[in-house]
Amino acid sequence: MSVNEAMREIRAIESLIGPYEYYSYEARKVLTALRDLKNALEKMDKESIKRMIAEISNIDELAAPYRGYSFVEEALLHAKRLLSELKKIVGE
Who contacts 83 (Cβ-Cβ below 8 Å, separation ≥6)? Predict the structure, then answer.
């Protein structure tokens, strides 16, 4: 099921960048967005999920200063998979 896959990808991203939440504005912003996304997925609020798709699509820009770090690159791969699952959920 796409929701389970999406939640798995969210947890993966959180575990990779979570330790940097208090050191990086960008990490904090992504983690806050992921928390909001989890709430939207739990409620199956498709409008909120669509808004989150737009926000998560910009994750490459937020990660730009940190590109090259292996954990950032891995988080970006999980973000791409997450976007794919979210699009399945909302029917795009």
Answer: 53, 56, 57
pLDDT greater than 80 at residue 1:
no
| Residue 70 to residue 86: CA distance in whole angstroms | 24
- How long, in residues, is the chain? 92
Nearest to 53 by CA among 19, 91, 21: 91
Domain residue ranges in the chain: 2-90
The pLDDT tens digits for 19-54 are 999 999 999 999 999 999 999 999 998 999 999 998
Give the SS3 label for residue 58. coil
List all residues 6 or more positions away from 35 whose beta carbon is below 8 Å from its beta carbon: none
pLDDT given for residue 58 in this prediction:
87
